[in-house]
Queue: 3 jobs
Job 1
Amino acid sequence: MYYKTPEKLLATESTLNGNSKMFLKLSAITILLIFCYTSLSSTHAVVSRVAMPEGCARACPPQRNPSRFICARNSVTGVLGTFEGDCTFGRYNHCVNTRERYSFVRYGNCHSGDF
């Protein structure tokens, strides 16, 4: 029979502990990445055409030019919306009326695949 010396047992045990710790770290990172991707993709999946909020100054309308549409996000619901008119976003890059606030995302069509 072959018996390991105490030094060899300790070396084997520390290697297993190191491998186990690395496996747990990688598993945690993988789960975190999956969770982040799922939460991001679910928030961007809802896109709707919304009316221009009252109190939002109108500038030049896009004149049937989709590249000039404004894509904005409702700051309360998180829903993305595309405005057919041009909305002047002020100093803080958002447009506010009495009930809703829209934060500018980008110009152009507001598709879920774009984010």
Job 2
Amino acid sequence: MAAFLPIVQQVLSGLSTQLDGAANLSANATAAASVTSATATSLTIPTDLPSLFALLSSFSALRDWMKLVVVGGFIEMCRRFFFGGYAQIISSFYITASFDEQDVSYTWMMVWLSKQPSWSKARAVQVSTNTMAQNTVIVVDDDDDRYKSFKSSRKLAYLPSPSITYNLWYKRRWMTITRIQSQTGWYGSKEQTLHVSILTRDHSILVSLLQEARRDYLAAQQHKMCVYVSDTSNNWCHRACREKRSMNSIILDPGVKDILIEDAKDFLLSKEWYAERGIPHRRGYLLYGAPGSGKTSFIHAVAGELGLDVYILSLSRIGLDDSALSELVNGLPSRCVALMEDIDAAFTSGLNRETSTAAIESQDNNAGKPTPPGAPPPPTTSRLSLSGLLNALDGVGAQEGRILFATTNRYSALDPALIRPGRMDLHIEFTLASKFQAKQLFSRFYLPAHNPDTILADDEKDEDDTGSVDSGYNSVAGEEADEKAPPSPVESNFSASSAEGSEGGEKPTYNGVSHQSRAPKLKLKQIANLASQFSEAIPEREISMASLQGYLMAYKIRPFEAVADVKAWVEKELKERTERKEKEAEAEKAKAAAAALEKEKEAEKAKAAAAPKDAAPTAETLKEPARITTS
């Protein structure tokens, strides 16, 4: 018993210690609760601003964050002011210009850039084959014989890479060029912008750069004519550049070309004369006549002769209306050729006030109505009216300084208001080919390329004086042809095995020669005699110039065969034309008969609708059948 007494004393002392600690903890918890309650009572959110600020400032952590925000904001403001001022100071020493891709100045700068020696050594370029026939980039394989064996006809070209800055010197001034490519529009169309910065404060440097770029562009386009078309956004887009066509290549009756060329040149030089008399500085030409008579080719040659670009106005474009046409005409430059081809086809029922107004009213009446089942789809043509076309040509907002060319195959279908002076000042008829035109065309085909453009048909010249020439193709050395010479050999494109394999052993029918065939050498007098024989076989005003050109293309290096076969070809052409006219006449008769029958049916329906519905049938009407009288 005495041995367990110390152990019991130790256990009791431990329990008393734990009980004292628990009592102390409960006392501390009670004190803390009372303090928290007092603090909560003292931390009530004040309702006035000074008390609120005093409360917030009592938190030390919040004061530190506020100091950090104020100091950081001040430092950021100083940084922005510094760099903004620095950029402003630096930009004050630069002149910056932007060039949009839709503007012609963008093309000027691209041509100028392609001629800079430093650009040919650029380390970062964009290679493209989509040059759109423009001379605005460096062409890699332009004159290199190594690329001539490529099957593809597209040429490789260098373009400035997007978002890369190029540095170069211009008149001892530092210059930077950057091409920015942005994606705009609903369909993701890309828009190009060229930014040019020059380290100078002299604006004459920028003016000198633009003038030099324009001179380089004009020099590059000296023998070319640019064509522009409109897009769906009513903007003019550069389509292509074509070689200028010589006026001597256009074969018309004597005096026709001189009248129009002299009139157009006088118009371009008479701007002050028009202004002094209060006459709008506009000129319009209407070319009408048979298809294939050379109207479009003549306009191409006139634009090249005058040094003007061609802007094509397509009146049948989907979505084109009066406001869009007015916007396009107002966007024309002051000196250009505006072309409206087949102006009679702008409206399906002819171009006059009555039909155009009826068409517009019909479209407006049918707008909003549901399409009946089985009905054809709505027309996809333009909603252009004649009044809108007239206002665009000579309205208050019409562009001045431009030359308008309009072509048509149906002169009688045009409204008199459209072709009156002031809109179409000069009307020129293009007829079918005459004997004079046939002779001129034949002579041009077989004269060499280096020969003068005049027709050398002077029978009084001696053959020894004129010498002999070839037709512009390779000729056998020493080979000279005379009027009794046999036709030049023809190389067939068909093999003997294919000919033997055909049914009946007949060779396939073809017309034409290989480009590797040899052409005979002809003397100038021989060409003149052959041209006379050729023209005598052509009936006056029966064959179009396009048909004659197509015929001569088949005999490109065979002048003797061209003369020998022309009579049979003319008979075939006239026979086919007669048959075609007969078919067209039969179709017109059938169409007229169907229209008359439809008219009779409509008259019967109207008569039946006008009759009283409640009238009782009489004995006579029951006995006699209904009669339909036809006229």
Job 3
Amino acid sequence: MRFFEKLFEKALWNGRFVVVVAVVASMAAATAIFYMATVDVVYLVGHMLNYADPSMAIDARKAMHDETITHVVEVVDGYLLATFMLIFALGMYELFVSDIDEAHGSKTSSKILVIESLDDLKARLAKVILMILIVTLFEEALKMNLTTTLDLLYLGGAIALVGVALYFTHKAESHGKEGEEAPH
């Protein structure tokens, strides 16, 4: 009976390697999103070469300006999403498969890519999600047609909520650092 128990436990333990599928898929998605955002930047730069055209009407220049700002925000959103996928992939690998020795041993490695626990991964991903939401709010605010005072109040409320979210995120981060330094 002990033999079957050991065999079953070994199969359970090795079952964690199924996470490698999610890691590879997440890295592929991150690479694809980085590629798409970079292609968008290349086209954006090419599009902007016409911005200084002296024959362009003021209305056309204003429209190009607004469109460009919207595209820049979309590119930032794409890079943030790709970063989210990258952090997710590295975190899942570190938590379920093995430590990434290159990340732990490198002086140039960012601490953001070293994941110690599931809570650590969730906290890092939550920060990226918050940034994506902020960028999305900014993108929608650019498109927003403020026709009433209530519309302006809603926009102000949304901005205030973003400020509160950033405040509490920063507060939680600094509280965590104080807690880490106390035992030393």
